[in-house]
Amino acid sequence: MALSIGIVGGGINGMCTAWQLAQAGHAVTVYERATLMSGTSCASSKLLHGGLRYLENFEFRLVKESLHERNQWLQRVPHLAKPLELLLPVYKHSRRGRLTYAAGLKLYDMLSASSVMPASRWFSAAQVKSQHPQLQTQGLLGGFSFWDGQMDDLALGLWVTEQAQEAGVQIKTNDTINRLTPNGSVHLQDGSEAQHDALVNAAGPWAEQLAQQSGIQLKHQLDLVRGSHLLLSDPCQQAWLLEVPGERRIFFVLPYKGQTLLGTTEVRHEIQEPVQCSAQERAYLLAAYKQYFPDQACQVVGIFAGLRPLIKSADNPTQATREYAIEQHQSITTILGGKWTTAMALANKVCQHINTQHQLQYA
How many whole angstroms separate alpha carbon 194 and alpha carbon 214? Predict the structure, then answer.
């Protein structure tokens, strides 16, 4: 039996969920308070990746799923997503040694056994220096090469939107939702309301706030973490995964549209704060970059920031889980957490969850 389903949130999780539900035969309407893909979903590091560093938090299920989904995106939309080779240099002063990285990358390769991309490789210091003379070489032991995917998050998100619309999804933008009710009613800021058989709260960083406004007590709490990025004017010939000097945190230096993409930070954020890169974050990223590329120009030509809606799980946001959760409160399904790469896998689970809930209701 087809349902009328309202989805709050026009980011990647909301639109993937809308697409999957429409393909399952449901009548779907998406409510977005601004424009589609205008928040977190267009402010990522532009990577489709398994999350190599998540292995340190023992998130093996998530990494395996992410690597599978990375490969699916690369096959599904090769005009918007492509394989990307990253280089991870190891120094005498690195917080993780060569053996630690080798073990992590071996596991990364094993969890991505079905991938057509090359396995990770080790290069000597001489080989790295020869190929990348701009890199700081003092104390360099060598470097690992490994592969992930890169995409244009906005373009890919809008492609998903097109597929959803072709499947029959109705989209309402610039519609702020004040609250949801257990019987499936959506109350908009303009005073109007719409009735549905089921609702999905896919508001990303604002999902917990919407739940509170709707009188819903969630089992999970969100830990909002701001990630800021810089765009430098000079082109980048090689993608890099680097340790922040003196820390265990990592950051990326990536080629992106003829420029250099530098990021990201991890700063706890309150929902009412403006989502923008601070002066401290800008200085932090530039200082880390200059440690590795002291002779490179640092002309900043672009800055953007986004909010990660992480599930609260650790005092240090770097160690917070990247897993997601699905909660049910009568007719309302709430999505908490999630990452760009796994948006389609999450959408499939939400679709199965709603179908199961409906079958139980009418059994």
Answer: 15
Count of domains forming the chain: 2
* AA letter at 325: A
Residues 233 and 144 placed together within one structural domain of the fold? yes
Residues 6+ apart with CB under 8 A from 58: none
Say if residue 264 is preceded by a cis peptide, omega within 30 of 0.
Answer: yes
Quick: pLDDT tens for 209-247: 999 999 999 999 999 999 999 999 999 999 999 999 999
User: pTM for this structure?
Assistant: 0.95
**Confidence band, pLDDT 50/70/90 cuts, at residue 360:** low
**What's the pLDDT tens digit per position in 99-129?**
999 999 999 999 998 788 999 999 999 999 9
Kindly provide the b/e burial profile for residues 145-170, where b requires at least 16 CB atoms within 10 angstroms of the residue's own CB.
bbbbbbbebbebbbbbbebbbebebe
More confident residue, 332 or 313: 332
Residue 67 lies in a domain: no
The contacts of residue 102 (CB under 8 Å, 6+ apart) are 122, 144
Is there a single domain that holds both residue 227 and residue 204? no
d(CA 258, CA 128): 23
Quick one: which of 104, 108, 84 has its CA closest to 94? Answer: 104
Residues 296 and 159 both lie in one domain: no
CB proximity list for 188: less than 8 A, separation 6 or greater: 31, 175, 176, 177, 178, 194
Distance CA 260, CA 233 (A): 7
In terms of DSSP bridges, do strands 222-232 and 239-243 run parallel, antiparallel, or are they unpaired?
unpaired
Extended beta strands in 9-106, E state: 27-31, 47-48, 81-91
DSSP 3-state helix, strand, coil percentages of the chain (rounded to 5)? 35, 30, 35
Residues 232, 296, single domain; the answer is: yes
Q: Is-contact 242 263, C-beta < 8 A?
A: no
